[in-house]
Amino acid sequence: MNKSELKIRDIFDRIREREGVQSDSDLGDILHISPRNIVDRKQRNSIPWDELYQYSQVKNISFDWLIKGQTVILEGDTLYTLPTNQDIIYTLAAQIYQTINDEQRILSTEKFQRILQLLHREMIDHKLNQVPTAKIREIIHLAE
Predict the structure, then answer these.
(1) How many CA atoms lie within 13 A of 37 on its CB side?
(2) Which CATH number goes with the domain that contains 10?
(3) Which of 9, 61, 115, 117 is 20 to 30 A distant from 74 in Cα terms?
C-alpha cells in the first residue's frame, strides 16, 4: 500500500470507532488537533503522521492497524501482516476475558496476548468466524 492509497477518512473512522466518538471536535481533542484542522485534512487527504504516531503510542495500539487497517503480528521470529477486521480481534479478546473471569483464573498480560494470537491464528487457519468457548477454556488451562 503506498501513500496515495491511504485515506485519512478511513484512519479517522478507525479512531472514531475505537474511541466511540462522532464529531470532528471530539476527534480533534483525542489527537490534539483543532476541529478546523481535521476538516482541512479530510478535504486534502493529508495525514497527520506525528499526531497519529503519538496516539498509537499512548493508546498502545498497532500503528500499522491505525494507518492501514491491518494487524502486524510477531509469531516466533516471523513478522507478518494480516488484513483483518479488528472487531473480530476485540470480540475474541472479550470472549477470552469473559472465560478467564468465569473460570476465576488469573493470567499475565503476556499470556493473554499469546492466547489471543493463538486463537486468532486458528480462526484464520480454519476459516472460522468464532472460537468455541470449550476451545478457549482448553487453551487457558494449558497456559497456566
Answers:
(1) 12
(2) 1.10.260.40
(3) 9
